[in-house]
Amino acid sequence: MAFTSPADSEDDSYVMVHPDGKHSTSSPDYFAAICAEVDNLSAGLRTVSLEIHDNPELQYKEFHAHKVLTEYLARQPGWTVTPSAYGLATAFVAVFDSDRKGAVVSFNAEYEGGGGKIKLLNAGAYTNVDISLIAHPGISPDAALVRTAAYFAFKAEYFGKEAHAAARPWEGINALDALITAYNATSVLRQQTEPGDIIQGMITNGGLRPNIIHAYSAGRFVVRSSSRARVEALKTRVFACFEAGATATGARLKLTPGGSYADHVPNHALGRSYEKYFNCLDGDIVEGDLDILRSATSASTDQGDISYAILSIQPSCWIRSEDDTGKQLGGPHTPDFEKAARTEEAHGLAMRVAKALAATAVDVLTRPELLAEVKREFDETKLVDELPRGADHW
To answer: So what family is this one in (predicted)?
Structure first.
């Protein structure tokens, strides 16, 4: 995570004309300098990227990536780097401070499972931060106003009573029957859920032997929807399915929360700034509501919790995961995408995204009216939500 505060320059403006003439837009003259600086850094960033790509690590164990990134940033003039920040061994903070008053912009660099951003949020990492910027690659069209789904995971356990399934089954209480009843009930429930509501699950323990009335069963389940409020409503209906399993069989039910993400709520004013700059670099992000519709996703991210706390955008960028004929191959979290993400084309796209994000940050730092606009929008659209952020709540 990197923080920046305002530069020392005045905010002069000029007109940048897109090469095909379609995108003519007023832009601060910082943009040319930003593009030149990113181009100068590109080769070094490519080396860093390949080093991390060639040494994959799992969540909270990214020790090599932590070392590579912190050492790289520590070599850059003006940056102060704190390794293993906020009690997390693989978290770090890199700060560039201009010693001037103004907004603070955070660039979220991490991407991991396990809600790392929520841990940092709860630890105070985002205190006094005004805006959080991050981008995410995929195989859908480039977009500025990405809104992700809210998410809640839980573990279900049933406790019954063992008995011989052939000799005296009536003496048992079948915990597996309870779980199967709940599983089937959630499948039936899907018929009456709204678009965007998702119920997922798996059985992790189905008993010991087929000739036993099972005393224990367990599974892991996930509910997703378009907003945190919708997830809360869906959870109530899903939990009723699990209560039904207990009622039908006499088994005792235990539900244990496994974590949650809020939906990501993009700030439209920030998104317009990003769109302007990205499209100046041969991008083709569509405007407004069409962008929201085209970029809608049922995927979830802990950046959603950040967006409930401070201003945020999470643009998506399209890495072409395709075969030689142009056929679409696998998206994120697949071997196909792993290969596509290592290409020169993907690196070039990342550099374009970096330029647009940096220019968006400079817009905020140098245009007080934009900062006021994004804050006003945040205050007007902020949802009333009394639930603890990132909590394992019921």
So the answer is: Belongs to the peptidase M20A family.
